[in-house]
Amino acid sequence: MNELAILSKAMIAERKDILLSILGGFIAGAAGVALFSASGYLISQTVFMPPLYTLIVLTALVKLLGLLRAASRYGERLYSHRATFSMLSRLRTGFFARLIPLTPGILNKNRSGDLLARIVGDVESLQNYFLRVAYPPVIVITVFLATMVFSASYSFWMACLFITGMLLTALVVPGIVLLGQRSIHGRVRKQRALLSTEVTEVLYGFRDLKVYGQLPQREQQLQAASAALTAEQQRAAGHLLRGQAMHTFVTFFISWGVLTLGAYLIMEGALAGVFLAMLVMASQTVFEEAAAMATLPAYKQDSEHAAKRLTETVMPAGDLPVQPGRTLAAGDAVSVELSGVTFQYIDEWRPALTEVSLQLPAGSRTAVVGPSGSGKSTLIDLLLKLRTPVSGDILLNGVSVQELDETGIWEASNVVLQQSHFFRGTVRDNLLLNGEEQSDEVLLEALAKAQLQDVALTDVVFEKGENLSDGEKQRLALARVMLRKGRLWLLDEPTSSLDYVTEERVLTHLYEQSAGDTLLLICHRLTGLEGMDRIIVMEQGRVIETGSYAELMEQKGYLYRMKQIELQMIGEL
To answer: Any transmembrane segments, and where (predicted)?
Structure first.
């Protein structure tokens, strides 16, 4: 797929503003050439002492052309930039629309700093495609053609000289710039992405780097990456300046050529001397419109490289599939069924889940236990449609999740993951993530149920909850989920950082609120599982035991051994 196809589609969507900007640009360019040509002709005419009305008409024409040029240039800027920002908005929203279904798997393939550079830098770079790549050739060709027709009415050879100048500025100079640009193609952008990656990791891991004494080494890496980026930027800027210098040289070369050729034609009697200044001024003005051609190859390759990186990120296997239209019915408890589900992470040597088949009736309470790495958390990712199984099927209320819109699944689910994210703001801000208005009394009641009765709604929460302990983070996440109205509870180690007393109080309120709902609890602690309708024991991605607490204890299998180890450890404490 052509990386710039998405840009072409965005341009087609903004064709009205684009056509208006091209029209305004042509009028502004032609009016500029006419303005300076008329000025040169006016200066020449004053030598011959023309009638006063001639000077009045020429002066009025110059003023009108000046006003026309200013007005059309304003319109050209207005419509071209409006089209550019509208296309940028379409590209940004389109990119995010393709990116969201790929999370969280996309984070396993791309470092967060590099992904951030693509989301911000690469998307922003595409704004130059229309203004710096697609737009200038159209204006240059149209204005040059109009100028050549104008000059040909005075001298055929002048028109040929203008054609030579157009070929040099529109083809030769950009071609030379393009040849040199290939050697530094993409290096600035790659170096910028590398620096963003290093900065992001240092910020995220600052505390650990400081504790382990590795901060000076990472600072040196940052300085080296910054110096490399600066060197690449200087090299690229120098290359662009050389292209602009060549364009300026061609402009003066053609202007001197017009002056020389005009003098010769005057001597031969083929051109009236009063028109020489007019043609010289026209030649100097028309090349102003071609100045953007000198930097066009750089912006073109920059846009292509940015579009390629974005395409590689969000469309590794083609276009985004059509989104399913069915919605999970709201208001009823959700039944869950897994049939022969197998899932394997990319580049992993073994599956995370292998032929897992489960049935969770609506309104039931189920606990999933097992050692770390047994695939428990992957179950929740699959149920939330954050990942897609390699084989098998998952049914919610008898409907495959592949047919369900993920937004409806999320709205029907009350989820607490192992790592909950908290945004910088207040406790109230982090409780009201779902956008629903809640009174302070309701919020305080949820905090009390989560054993955070001493926390005020106006207390500040740092980014990622850095000022909260792990236990406070878990309780704040539980308070947040208690404010939701979903009928499917998916809880992944929600109380692992709490002491036994606090854990019991929190779970008591949680069970009371989820009465009649479908609840799936993933845990390592085995206390309090007696009240579960069903317990599922997993190991190495497979279900090895299933049944009620009493049944599994009686079997004296894996869960029984785990329970004995836990009791032994508690007794030693």
So the answer is: 18-42, 48-68, 129-150, 156-180, 249-267
